[in-house]
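Study this one:
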Amino acid sequence: MLNKRRLLLIDSSDSARTILYKEISSEMPELDIIACATGKEALTAVNRYEFEIITTGVALSDMDGYKVIEKIRRSNKNRDTAIFVVSGDTDTRIMHADSDDSNAVTAYFDKAEGHKALVNFILSFLGKDIAVPVKVLYVDKSATSTAITSAILNKNEIEFVHFNEAEDALNLLERDIVENKNCSFDIAITDLMLSSKMTGFDMIQNIRNQLELDYLALPILLMTIEPGEDEKTDFTGIFGAGTNDFITKPIDEEDLLNRIKNLVNIKRQNEALSN
């Protein structure tokens, strides 16, 4: 996890850098934005800081944009950072022949769509919270756990639908997919101990296999009890079932909200890249 969220803008145009910097800063003032005009400046920043997103043009004043990307992919801090190429020539979406990494570019953005669209694309990928409601599917048969978790969700104005039984939740998901041509829920939260007919693991496997919703289409947070002194957490079972993450009871509000935010960001980023 980054200590500070950072974005690197690489563009030889002073006006383009200024516009993007101002508009993104106004929407996400907590985001640290570094704007560079040259490849040399950008590589200095890349070696010093870790970024969540790097955007670059193809034609820089001192070197080719793809050369900059190749050097970034060899850096220690940003070898896995999302890199967006912003270009007016979207037909030349190919790395140089001497590049060993065909996945070096995360996504391409057509400059003709305008800076507003680019700003929205970046904000969507970063998982900007405001004006984007979160919709949660919550399954838990425990009255106490449901009361605590529901109170946290309500307090933070997070929309959710609660079910005691996994079968009811799966039926709703199935209808939701048919009606919306996709899954409209951002995250599913389920307790491990549900009914005798279907456990949390069973529900998760149904979501992954029968409904064909993968880790990106519907992130899942599993709620479990804290293991005893002589017990160990079954990581193989938890993640093997198709869980993105898990949280132990009793639920801590800050921990729950951070996990929800991280998982929703996964879906937002996937949607930004797919659209």
Q: What stands out?
A: Confidence is low (pLDDT under 50) at residues 90-102. The chain is about 40% helix and 20% strand.
